[in-house]
Amino acid sequence: MATETLTRPRVGRRARPGRARRAHPTPAGLGLLAPFVVLYLLFLVGPIAYLAVMSLFNTSLVRPGLGGFAGLGNYAEALTSSEFWSSLWHTVLFTIMTTPPLVVLALALAILTNRLARGRWFFRLVFFAPYVIPSSVMALIWVWIYTPDFGLYSSWLSSLGIAAPSWLGDPNWALASIALGTIWWTLGFNFVLYLAGLQEIPRELYEAAAIDGGGPWQQIRRITIPMLGRTTTLVAVLQVITSLKVFDQMYIMTQGGPDFSTRSAVQYIFESGFTNYRVGYASAASMLLFLVILAVSVGWFSLVRRAERGV
Question: What is the spatial distance between Cα 139 and Cα 143, in angstroms, rounded to a whole number?
Fold first, then answer.
């Protein structure tokens, strides 16, 4: 009796287990990426490269061309300048003042808002609305709040019989006052990021925890905070980078005063390039600030990845 041999059609090679297939770029995909790559090179990579070149020359706004070659002289001058280090310290101190509150408060408000059964849209609007205000408007609002004698804070303290300090006129209070206004202004962005992260946590986890007797605080500590680990990393890194680049509100509210106690690194670079016309020196200071921001970002990501891997 003849036997028939059944053969299955060969659909394709079976991928080896444990090895992912490599996706080869297609002409359509490269065409879609091309506009972004071109804009990225023109408006980011190109300016950074030109900035690095200018930092090696005595470039000035009042002379054409790059000027005389300075080598690393501009970098040496910046690293030995007490004004540069003072402005950098003010920037770091401002970052320390603003980053922890903007992370912790945004997380707490997002958790509370997410647990509301009704009116959630209202609190989303209230917390996010200040973020869409331009920096100039935000600065004017807080200058009015801090105005002596008839400002909002001064009026409140006067009604309690407490003499209000000169919020923006005292070097001991000016930086903290600007930090407080910045926290109110930028809290909404981190708040929205945390709300988006909360939507990704399965509700079944909370239901199972409730069945096992876990209370609200235990659910937050055991489920919410660990599940929001990557969101917290993103929020913290973005907030640190943003705070290290602070300029607008400080310049508008105090112009770096009093006694240069609120002059940020970006303002120092701005004044070096556009007030003193030393563009080459300002470029070197910009590169140093860029390296500081890059080192902080890379270091933070490395620490977080090592913590996630349990190293």
Answer: 6
